[in-house]
Every structure is written in C-alpha cells, then in structure tokens.
Amino acid sequence: MNVTVSNLTDHEAHWLAPYAMHSAETAGREHDEPLHPYRGPYQRDRDRIVHSSAYRRLAHKTQVFTGVKGDYHRTRLTHTLEVASIARTIGRVLRLNEDLIEALALMHDIGHPPFGHAGESILDEFTHDWGGFNHNQHAIRIVTELEYRYPEFPGLNLSKEILAGQQIRYKRRNDRVQCPPLLEVQVVDAADSIAYDAHDADDALELGLLELDNLLAVPLWEKAVRQVESRYTALDTKPFRRAVIHQLIEMLVSDLVESSCHRLEKSGVDSPRAVTQSATRIIAPSEAVFNQKTELEKFLFAQVYRHPTVLAERTIAGEALREMFQHFTQCPEKLPESARKRLEIDGVARVVCDFLAGMTDRFALEEHRRQKEP
What we know:
The chain is mainly alpha-helical. It has one domain (5-10, 40-372): Hypothetical protein af1432 (Orthogonal Bundle), CATH 1.10.3210. It has helices at 5-15, 41-50, 53-57, 76-93, 98-107, 116-126, 135-146, 160-173, 183-206, 212-215, 219-231, 237-267, 272-276, 287-305, 308-330, 337-340, 343-346, 348-357, 361-372. The relative contact order is 0.13.
C-alpha cells in the first residue's frame, strides 16, 4: 500500500468542512523543509512538540496546587492532555482539522514556569524592564529559539498556523486582538476553559479544600449533580464526585458544540479566511451556559485559588524563585553552559528568566535548597 501526503490531502478534502484549515493551505514554516512522504505539516508539528524537552518537563510543573503531596491532582502535562482530548472531540464533530487542533493543544501551556501563575507573576515582576514575562509569549520563544533539536535551525520550526495560534492567545490576554483566529484555535481555547472548570473543582475536592455541598451553591454544578442523581441512586462519595465531573464536562461540551453549530450556520463562513474576518468568535457556549460558567469560575477563584493553603504555598514558591533570580543575576557564571552561551545575545535578566522558567517545581525547590546550604 502506497501511503503518501496526497492521501492526506484527499482525505481532508473529502472530510473537512470548508471553514476548516486544510493542511494543503498551510503558510509553511520559517525555514523551508521538504514535505514528509506520509505525514502532514500539523502531524509533524505535533510530534516535534511531544518530543521536545519543554513538553516533557510539564509532567513536573504545577497546574494549580503548588507543594501538594500525592499523585491525584493535575500537572501541566495531564491538564494539557485533557485539553487535547476535549478539543479533538469538539473538532471532530465540527469537521475541523484534528491534527492542527491537537498540535495547538499540546503546545498551549508549554511556556509555563514552575509553580503555576505564582511563578509567572514573579518572573514578570523581575523582567518588567525587559519586556516582562508571559507564558504564552514564552512558549513561542521556546519553540523558535530555545529548543535545539535540529542541526538546520534553532527551535522546532513549527508551522506558521501553530505560532499564530499561540501568539493570538498572548494578544487576547493583553486585549490586543482585532479579529478572531482560526476555528481550530478557538476550539483549543474553549477546551482549555472547560478543562479548568472541571478539573480544578475535582482536585480541590480531592485535596479537601472544598466539600461537595459547597459547590451546590453554583447553579452549573447543582445541575450536573441533579442529572447524576437521576441516573444513580447509591453511589459512594468518590464515584459520585467523578460522575458529576464527567457530567459537567459532557454538559459544557454539548452546549458548546450545539451553540457553535448554530453560529456557524448563521455566519455563513465558508473558508478559514472568512472565519478570521468575521465579527466575533464562533466557537463559544450559549449565553446561558457562559453566565453559569462565569459563576463557577468566580466561585473557584474565591474558594480555591484564594484559599489560604494555596496562597501560603504560592508565597513559599514565589520566594524561592525570587531568591534564585537574584542569585543568578548576581552570579551569572553559575548558570549552566547552555544558558551562559546566550548572555551576550539576550542579556542577564532574560537568560536567567529563561533558565528559571524551564525548571520543574521539584528541580526549582532542590536548586533553591542547594543555594541556601552553607
């Protein structure tokens, strides 16, 4: 059987919707490369991301709960895999490019430093005069400059659609987005939000930061509970909680798909270009569910992300990063050789920031402990 890229092109032409991003229409890469005989451009992007060292380090980076002992709660890597799973489900229903969606999802958090958003805040504070630090922007820096895996070019030389999708996440967080991105990018953003809503509640319950009854005050959660209770009558606490999380995700994904299908039909978009020139985002929940999601997120912010235990751990982690930043900027000769090579190019502050951002939580704490030893 002769499997070639032309098979992929034919398959996409037959299966993908006209508003999906077809591999044959890619804008290419910064550094030209010959086509692979049987892998499309976004399949290659996915593989390059998965095989990168920055992606592997996500396994030991905090999602929300810094300093937590145990293996149940999410890491950046497990969060990333959950986002990819949800996003591919949505993409398949809408007949979008699943390879592009998966690559975007696997990359979306690759720029996160250790200790979650606490680490990001500290690094942003210390590099304010040099452009600051944002994990979405740092992800682009990783895949275009910092990863060295190929002799022909720095970075991973990913497709321009991948880089643009990550860049627009940074611009959106900084209120600088004028036009909506490709539908595949919109799907990953929506899947990221759904994953957060579900697994942050799940982890908080597992760690004892919340009780099931606390969440009943949130209409979206209460609705999921009632639907589970209508199907099961005698579940123990943990199976019941997991059934509610499953139902919550099911509700959010189903609403998103139905609402997005309605918008697609109403918008009449018939190409990726038409999508990026439309007035608003198409992949979004219904207004009712959006309001309910907002309530849940406000509850999680107040009761989980601002929980005294979480804040205390973040303070400890932040102080460790703060002290290491000061140590390495004062003594850059103690940086590893790979980092020292970039000092003349990027300056001390940026190189130290890159080095710290690449650390896992565990390595950061061990390095901080080593520096404190007499």
